[in-house]
Write a structure and sequence with these properties.
Blueprint lengths: L19 H34 L5 H24 L4 E7 L4 E5 L3 E2 L7 E5 L7 H4 L8 E10 L2 E9 L13 H9 L15 H7 L6 E6 L5 H15 L1 H6 L1 E4 L3 H7 L2 H4 L5 E4 L16 H8 L2 H11 L7 E5 L2 E5 L1 H14 L3 H45 L7 H6 L9 H13 L1 H10 L5 H10 L1 H8 L5 H7 L11 H12 L3 H33 L6 H4 L2 H10 L5 H7 L7 E4 L7 H10 L5 E5 L13 H5 L8 E5 L1 E2 L4 H14 L7 E2 L8 E4 L5 H12 L5 E4 L2 H12 L11 E4 L1 H4 L4 E7 L1 H5 L4 H9 L2 E9 L11 E2 L1
Parallel strand pairs: 2-4, 7-13, 7-14, 8-9, 8-12, 12-13, 15-16, 17-21, 17-22, 18-19, 18-20, 20-21
Antiparallel strand pairs: 1-2, 1-5, 3-4, 5-6, 10-11
Bound molecules: adenosine-5'-triphosphate (ATP).
Adenosine-5'-triphosphate binds next to helix 4 and helix 6.
């Protein structure tokens, strides 16, 4: 690490040391860092060029080249993302050593390769986040550097010795307050510069098992979870190879957070809402809360297991062969099913074995009949012979014996059995019977049949669901899919499995066809390039038709995120779940399947639960899905919501849970929330007036119960749907507002919000979205939990 002279003048190093000498010195160092970044960028670009034009003879060369290109592209992206806010901190250690902290690690050129900048996630950077005057981790001074583009605009120092330091629980208070006071832009920013000690501890906690981060609104749960993902991607390369899945409550929320991980240099990340976990279905059907609640319960897993078993029929089979009638007794099917289940518990995979076994049993039934016939004939032949012996009349040998007598004694030849099997399968009645016994099923068909056929549902749900519950599930075919169906489809997909042998055979045909097409394309391109530029590289030298086809088919042109998101069976190295209190037991089952190692960061607030499947406690929600104990961490400091607003929201929280504690806000604005009472006919105008007055104070959100929000959205923004978080004014329902934040919030008609089944939680969410002002506009009587607000 760069060594600098021990700071001589302690006076210069006090809080807010923006004096020119210091700024100048830091600017010089920053210039060196950026010069190094530019140099590295050029090196990476040159390497990338070389890799892209490298000719490879074998497919192995091509694979290696692709891997190299991926690595270099990743490095180039990380350097690009580090451009803004490259270096934000400096530590002066007791021993005179100086460490600079930033978004990425940098070393001087070889052969020295001395550290110039420490990645914020490196162990050596940790004191930047956790050192305090009482436990300074060897740090004498912590400095936060404020920068704009490549210019240092300010430095903020903390001396970490007990005599001279102000005792504060916050690290880098000045820089933190400056970050919190910035206007909201509709995009969450990273907080690598101002991460606090209790947050840092969570970020760096080991990645084993499930870590739950519970905390009130604005305590930094989302920010911390994303930084933890960045930390794990850095510290555990194996997680990077599989990627991280981040699950958030709505597309709007995902838009809000999507820049955070890339700004920390991490791209191996997939962002998804829980309703997109089953990629081939886009749910559009709205269902009643009670239906959603039931579909979210763990009992549905048992229901689906039974629904699959119900599709595997064990009955006697009657069939004909060569004009003769046969019956295969059910015992044969039972033993075929046993064998099939031994091969795989998944229905579609086991199906292949079941069919083979049953077909063999059918054929053997035919063979057996032949053998019995033969024995009868032989028996008759013996008797005839005996008679013949007595009569000595050679002309009386029976014709039938001549034919049957050529067969293998009691055992059929393999070819013969195969022939009978082929004949049987060619018989449409037999083929249909086989299909009915153990049909090939898609998850969609399994669920549609179950919900649309009352008799089937009664049969399957007996002892599991009562008649009312069955009625809730009943639904016609073709009505579409709801959000609550998604985990059920995913569960069904797991129970059914995919017959890969069959898929591979089909894929091989498609691949051959694509390779043929790709060869034609390559050929056509070569002709073109020859005409245009003799020097041009021929595509065919670089890629075979198969490789090109594979790139197209396997989607090499898709990003990691696109490939992973489209693949239901992709398993991730780590999963982050935000607003996790909303997830049902069935949704948790689907998520744990995405991460068999069970490495998860689960963040949320049980008091902000608003959906029909919201969890009462974390233990209840999570423990059934993981053998390891669920670790719980709590965040208690509120960074978003000013103390005045938290005080105003406290009665709502206490009505939800009298024992809950309100987060301690780090800021106050001196501006108490107000309420505006108005006649019903004037309500819309009052909202519009208020919004108008708030214009110019940053991002404004109007939050109302869903139907009112839809009407207000049109009136205030002229838009019927969709939410552009970067607009000056955004209109949202409380559920849509989850996880978001704005400079000013107007809550409209709180009584309507309270009318929903989880109304208190929703009102609490709505009120705590603001970083500044809160206004409540109402025409109906103000609810008791808000009666304490002063009229405007
Ligand atoms: N250490 C920090 N430095 C700077 N800003 C911070 C810090 N911690 C949190 N914040 C900011 O506080 C705000 C709230 O953070 P975040 O959205 O992560 O909270 P949350 O607990 O997820 O809230 P909610 O439960 O309401 O969704 C964000 O703007 C975030 O950037």
């Amino acid at each position: 690490m760069a060594r600098q002279p021990h700071p001589q003048n302690q006076h210069d190093m006090s809080h807010g040391s923006d004096e020119p000498g210091e700024l100048e010195r830091e600017q010089q160092y920053l210039d060196r860092l950026y010069a190094r970044v530019d140099e590295l960028r050029e090196e990476v670009a040159a390497d990338l060029d070389r890799a892209l034009t490298q000719r490879g003879a074998s497919s192995r060369d091509l694979v290696e080249r692709e891997a190299r290109v991926d690595r270099l592209t990743e490095r180039a992206t990380a350097l690009d993302h580090a451009e803004s806010g490259l270096c934000f901190g400096r530590l002066d250690l007791d021993d005179g050593q100086v460490r600079y902290i930033g978004r990425t690690g940098l070393r001087s050129p070889a052969p020295q390769r001395r550290p110039m900048l420490l990645d914020w996630r490196a162990p050596g950077a940790r004191p930047f986040y956790v050192a305090t005057p009482a436990d300074n981790h060897g740090v004498m001074r912590r400095r936060h550097l404020r920068t704009q583009r490549r210019r240092v605009t300010g430095v903020e120092d903390e001396l970490l010795d007990l005599e001279s330091a102000e005792i504060t629980t916050l690290q880098g208070e000045g820089a933190l307050m400056a970050a919190l006071a910035e206007r909201r832009t509709g995009r969450m920013r990273d907080i690598a510069m101002t991460l606090q000690a209790e947050q840092d501890e969570i970020v760096r906690a080991n990645g084993e098992g499930v870590l739950v981060v519970q905390g009130g609104p604005g305590t930094g749960k989302t920010a911390v979870a994303l930084h933890r993902a960045a930390y794990l991607l850095y510290a555990r390369p194996e997680i990077g190879r599989q990627g991280v899945l981040v699950v958030g409550p709505s597309p709007t929320f995902l838009d809000y957070i999507e820049q955070v991980l890339p700004s920390l240099g991490e791209t191996q990340v997939v962002l998804q809402t829980p309703d997109r976990l089953y990629p081939s279905v886009v749910p559009g059907l709205r269902e009643a809360d009670e239906v959603m609640r039931l579909k979210g319960e763990a009992v549905m897993a048992e229901l689906l297991t039974r629904a699959v078993a119900d599709r595997q029929r064990i009955v006697d089979i009657e069939f004909s062969f060569d004009g003769d009638r046969f019956t295969l007794p059910r015992q044969a099917l039972w033993s075929a099913a046993q064998q099939a289940h031994r091969v795989s518990p998944a229905h579609n995979v086991a199906r292949r074995t079941f069919r083979a076994q049953v077909l063999r049993a059918l054929a053997m039934e035919v063979v057996g009949a032949g053998v019995r016939l033969l024995q009868e004939v032989e028996q008759g032949f013996e008797e005839e012979l005996a008679r013949f012996d007595t009569s000595r009349n050679l002309d009386e040998v029976p014709a039938a014996v001549e034919v049957a007598g050529t067969e293998v004694d009691g055992v059929a030849a393999a070819e013969e059995v195969a022939y009978i099997e082929r004949e049987l399968m060619a018989d449409p009645d037999v083929a249909q019977a086989m299909e009915d016994l153990w049909p090939k099923l898609t998850p969609e068909r399994l669920l549609e049949d179950l919900f649309a056929e009352p008799e089937r549902l009664d049969r399957v749900a007996g002892g599991l669901l009562d008649a009312d519950e069955r009625r809730l599930l009943a639904r016609d075919r073709g009505t579409g899919w709801s959000v609550a169906d998604v985990p059920l489809l995913d569960e069904a997909a797991e129970l059914l499995g995919v017959d890969e042998a069959e898929d591979r055979a089909r894929a091989a045909v498609v691949a051959r066809e694509r390779a043929r097409f790709a060869r034609q394309v390559l050929h056509a391109n070569d002709l073109l390039t020859e005409e245009m530029d003799e020097e041009a590289l021929e595509a065919a030298d670089l890629l075979s038709g198969e490789a090109l086809a594979e790139r197209n088919v396997a989607g090499d042109h898709r990003s990691f995120a696109e490939r992973a998101a489209a693949d239901r069976t992709w398993t991730y190295g780590h999963v982050v779940v935000d607003e996790a209190q909303e997830l049902s037991a069935m949704a948790w089952r689907a998520l744990f399947r995405r991460c068999p190692a069970g490495s998860m960061t689960v963040v949320g607030d049980v008091h902000q639960g608003s959906g029909p499947t919201a969890a009462a406690t974390w233990e209840l929600a999570l423990q059934p899905h993981t053998p390891a104990p669920v670790r719980l961490r709590e965040l208690t400091v509120g960074f978003r919501t000013p103390s005045e607003v938290m005080e105003a929201a406290a009665p709502v929280l206490r009505a939800l849970d009298p024992d809950a504690s309100v987060p301690t806000s780090v800021r106050s604005t001196g501006e108490a929330p107000v309420r505006i009472g108005t006649p019903a006919t004037e309500l819309d105008r009052a909202v519009a007036d208020r919004v108008e007055r708030l214009r110019g104070r940053g991002a404004v959100a109007v939050v109302a119960a869903a139907p009112r929000a839809a009407a207000l959205r049109e009136q205030l923004t002229g838009q019927a749907g969709g939410t552009d978080l970067q607009a000056d004014v955004v209109v949202l329902s409380p559920r849509e507002a989850k996880g978001l934040e704005f400079d000013a919030v107007v809550v409209v008609e709180p009584g309507e919000i309270l009318d929903s089944p989880r109304g208190l939680g929703e009102l609490y969410v709505a009120m705590t979205r603001t970083t500044g002002t809160l206004t409540v506009v109402h025409s109906a009587e103000v609810p008791e939990v808000l009666a304490h607000l002063s009229p405007a």
